[in-house]
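Co-fold these.
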Amino acid sequence: MADTKPARLDVRKTYKLFIGGGFPRSESGRSYVVHDTEGGFLANAALASRKDVRDAVVAARKAFPGWSGRTPYNRGQIVYRVAEMLEGRRAQFADEVARGEGLATGDAEAAVDASIDRLVWYAGWADKVAQVVGSSNPVAGPYFDFSVPEPTGVVAVVAPQESSLLGLVSVLAPVIVSGNTAVVLASEARPLPAITFTEVLATSDLPGGVVNVLTGRIAEVAPWLASHMDVNAIDLTGVRDADTARELELAAAENLKRVRRPDPGDEPDWTADQGTARLTWPLETKTVWHPIGI
Amino acid sequence: MAFEYAPAPESRAIVDLKSSYGVFIDGEFVDTADGHTFKSISPATEEVLAEITEAGPADVDRAVAAARRAYDDTWSTMPGAERAKYLYRIARIVQERSRELAVLESLDNGKPIRESRDVDLPLVAAHLFYYAGWADKLEYAGLGPDPRPHGVAAQVIPWNFPMLMLAWKIAPALAAGNTVVLKPAETTSLTALAFAEICRQADLPPGVVNIVTGAGDTGRALVEHPGVDKVAFTGSTEVGKAIARAVAGTAKKVTLELGGKAANIIFDDAPLDQAVEGIINGIFFNQGHVCCAGSRLLVQESVYDDVLTSLKRRMATLRVGDPLDKNTDIGAINSAEQLAKIRTLSDIGEAEGAERWSPPCELPDRGYWFRPTIFTGVSQAHRIAREEIFGPVLSILTFRTPAEAVEKANNTPYGLSAGVWTDKGSRILWTANQLKAGVVWANTFNRFDPTSPFGGYKESGYGREGGKHGLAAYLKGGEN
Amino acid sequence: MTATLPAAGVDGATESPSALRRFLHGLPGVDQVGAEARAATLATRSIKTTAKAWAIDRAISMIDLTTLEGQDTPGKVRALCSKAVRPDPADPDCPRVAAICVYPDRVPIAKQALGDSGVRVASVATAFPSGRSTLDIKLADTRAAVDAGADEIDMVIDRGAFLAGDYQKVYDEIAAVEQASGRAHLKVILETGELATYDNVRRASWLAMLAGADFIKTSTGKVQPAATLPVTLVMLEAVRDFRDATGRQVGVKPAGGIRTTKDAIRNLVLVNEIAGDDWLTPEWFRIGASSLLNDLLMQRTKLTTGRYSGPDYFTLD
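Predicted complex below.
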């Protein structure tokens, strides 16, 4: 209609990477087009390169001593804070998940709600996992002997491909809540909620570098993560191709990374009870002995 | 006149060696289908002890099939309480035959009889007893109401603690309800074969435990066998990586207990006499053939001279020689190959400028021997400070502050164990927190117990053996 | 505080009560479990045949044959002296013991009975075994024993003062008794069973050596535990380190609870592997015992005859 004001041109977001608490573009200067499930244009996402992997791992390693050295209570509070921040932006995420995954609004809202609740669930684990998987060991001698779980270090995560937010939260939260730092490769086709999620992380008192998020191709990025000698573990949940998963596991053997293989069959049902498996796989057990005497 | 200890040899008569051994499959000793034989020698005398079978792929195939049958037909359906009683029975037989087994171990491995008698065999029985008790209590292991075993476990063990490593592997596997095919190291098959006899004495159902002897090819065939559900390996990091590659893309679960280059940290307020004992025990126990050996000594500079003086004085009292002599502290190096490796790395240490010292001690004419040796003036850059020597060779470095000690201790791709010596409790806990190592011994070293989880960080492998954690490695859902 | 370690020397350690305290508390700690494990490992040494024969004879020659009872009569003391000189009347090659150990008032009897046999007379003193008396009484006690001919004085330390942290009092008393002992050798009994920790055993050992002890001795024999292997191990480490630090050698005497040949040989193994050869003589190592001697004699006879012997074949005293 002629007398209406022209529609306001919206300001689009530039989706960048999340490394060391900052939002750089890919050092390669590349990007790729992200489509919705109907094939329409959603946005350009940064196309991460091996050098972005390098930078992300450096950032994750640098953040590890501080993050793992915090009290579990503090880590739990921060992960809970992430949930709070996500709750505050619930509508935005519902919209983005709906567009990215082609979900009805109600389903997308349910996914966001479940993501928030999952963060709360894992937040509470921070100061309990050691009591569940640690032990006092009754050795046959005058020694005090105990075993405690510790974070393994820098964990690479290939995020689920289909569930772009709930899946991501479900694999990432259990990794970091115990003190690991993470380099995440977001869903290749649905990376946008992951990048928006980094805005939540960046405003949640989470120290820079604890979570680093890359967007790009599994085939290009994941091998550099799998072969990186300063990465301690890799979660291949998002790798749905068996040959690729095998190649990545082969590469991971070079420094004996702890490997979480893809679940058999389809992508896991992220709405199901998660149990403790994703919490415990990137943990080491440290056993300490000391004599008891006078 | 000095107090010279007269020879005090343990009698060999207790051991009844056969001239040759087949493989143990489905409850029977059988001849190889497609393998060869090789000679097992005593490293202390180079005498041939027996002919051992080098199992071929067909033997491995038969063994895995037997284990599968036993798993399906008997072991996985048997009530846990019954499995427990078999394990208790086996533990008791090990105790009854412990002196014989200790002598056999010392003969075959070269380790001092004092160690096989007082450390290895008691721990073997303890492991069997400990895990026997778990067999009917799996639902209390924290893995849900009805945790299930994996199935057939392939287990490959090293030559440094032949029977103890066998017990570490077989006890939790059987308790959890798996059946096993175990391959001992090629230089130390005899106690595993004796264990096979014990399984027969215990009337263990055929196929629950199978022993295939042989070297690397046999181990590879076993690990790569498609009928295997779970792989457990103790040995070198190099082979560990090969196994990790071999199982890539399969559904096989793996635990790896690999090499180490442990730092043993001595702070200036340490109980020094016990610290020196800890250093000695850390590196010379079992000829240094210990994955968790304290092979890198980190001494605070302010006590360096005192520690070095005390250490040398103590080393001069070590008795090297006949493994069967009850007073021997350090026995024979397990093989000519290992001796060559120790010599090579020690020569490299000298060539790189480290100062080498050994106490004067006479070595026997025959057999494989290496004097207890220390290197001073070693830096992190020396190969002897980075590579696992797996022999009685200690690299000594210094540090100035606790942070520097920890930084140096962690500056290695390995992460199996570490030692810390100080009388200050808070410093112990701080240091233990900082160390990237699966086992931290504070004011002690090289202590082992079936209830105590053992295993490494980083390239020292993954998974834990011992305790509830070691049990979980043999149950579904507990592998991580 | 730099003098935390034995090898760092003992300069200034006794200049003042506070210096003495700092020195003793600066000694490296002793981890109980580690020390006991080390002693237990050494106890597994297997001493056979020629080594055993040597050790038995050496142990006999190191014995301070002891009777410290209210009922000690002249006859009992004389009988013990004759046993000391000829432990095995059937074998003239059997060595004599090092010394007889008695109360001060029995010294003249022992002295007369032993004559020029070479067996020395040791006398306990200083209000043995409790040590709870005044210094002048303790010194008088010491002088009485020396005047009666004692070659060696076995004094007790004031454990009450030690446990109260009054190291200077303990030091001064040892030094005074050392003066009063004149030419007699001074053995200082720490009564380790009352000191409770190995840290205290180590401190008391150094305190006694700094004050002039010729020997440090574990126990009176009236308190349990007495001469355990780990206690003797810690004391042997102390004399070893003290010689390194000062150049002066001090002897060690475990006493109380050493009853069998196996016990005695384990002690010799400790000496051999902790302090070394230099201490393996009666001049530097003694074993305070009474019933031990007959067990050594029985084992000695077993070695020479190939038969197990019985108590009827050895004299009671």
